[in-house]
């Protein structure tokens, strides 16, 4: 079987290191996983005033999540939390009340930073949000990627075999997590 993974990059930056990381993850993922980016950059700032009439960007976000079997978050850490743009996208997807797109949707969290902590604090914050949104998230392995430019090519080539093995294993475990979750929680229609 194949599984559709929608990936969300938490950074809007043109030269995002997390976008580069996402390319590496796609290259190293097992063949059962098919990837589609779910864009977040054109979403207006959410307010519940929109709940009665979502704009096209909000509808497209929810449709893209619905069409995916699982969601992969690849995010930087901004000021020890997730970027506002990512939180905004999650708020959009979680509403209107009673129509939370993350319910029972398997997820995983990963991120890269030039610093030694490797987005650990942002990921912990994101995990709280995903718990509240009732997304069965992969607990382990965790992946705090210290981004070293020499190790990651622009197209996601990974030149360090230890890093390559680590990321390949992360994606295998993510596939197994998706399979397990979908076995007990079939997609809602
Ligand atoms: C950062 N950066 C950062 N790094 C980190 O490890 N912990 C942090 O709390 C922060 N805070 C932070 C705030 C803001 C507003 C910016 C712009 C940056 C540095 C950050 O990891 C670095 O810019 C990465 O390149 C961001 O990832 P993307 O956007 O390139 O994917």
TrEMBL record:
Name the Gene Ontology molecular function terms of this record: FMN binding; oxidoreductase activity
Q: Where is the NADPH-dependent FMN reductase-like domain?
A: 4-146
Identify the GO cellular component terms for this protein: cytosol
Q: Where are the coiled-coil regions?
A: none
Q: Which domain of life is it from?
A: Bacteria
Matching entries from InterPro entries are given as: Flavoprotein-like_sf, FMN_Rdtase-like_dom, NAD(P)H-dep_reductase
Provide an example Pfam family for this protein: FMN_red
Query: Can you name this protein?
Result: ACP phosphodiesterase
Which taxonomic lineage does the organism of this UniProt entry have? Bacteria, Bacillati, Actinomycetota, Actinomycetes, Kitasatosporales
């Amino acid at each position: 079987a194949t599984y559709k993974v929608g990936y969300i990059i938490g950074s809007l930056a043109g030269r995002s290191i997390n976008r580069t990381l996402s390319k590496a993850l796609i290259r190293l993922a097992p063949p059962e996983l098919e990837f589609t980016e779910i864009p977040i950059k054109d979403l207006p700032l959410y307010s519940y005033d929109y709940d009665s009439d979502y704009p096209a960007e909000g509808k497209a976000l929810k449709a893209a999540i619905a069409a995916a079997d699982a969601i992969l978050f690849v995010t930087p850490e901004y000021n020890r939390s997730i970027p506002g743009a990512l939180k905004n996208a999650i708020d959009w997807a979680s509403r209107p009340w009673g129509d939370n797109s993350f319910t029972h949707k398997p997820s995983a969290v990963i991120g890269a930073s030039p610093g030694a902590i490797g987005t650990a604090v942002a990921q912990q914050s994101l995990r709280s949000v995903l718990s509240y949104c009732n997304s069965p998230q992969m607990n382990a392995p965790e992946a705090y990627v210290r981004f070293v430019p020499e190790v990651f090519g622009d197209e996601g080539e990974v030149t360090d075999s230890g890093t390559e093995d680590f990321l390949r294993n992360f994606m295998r475990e993510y596939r197994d997590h998706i399979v397990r979750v979908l076995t007990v929680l079939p997609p809602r229609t």
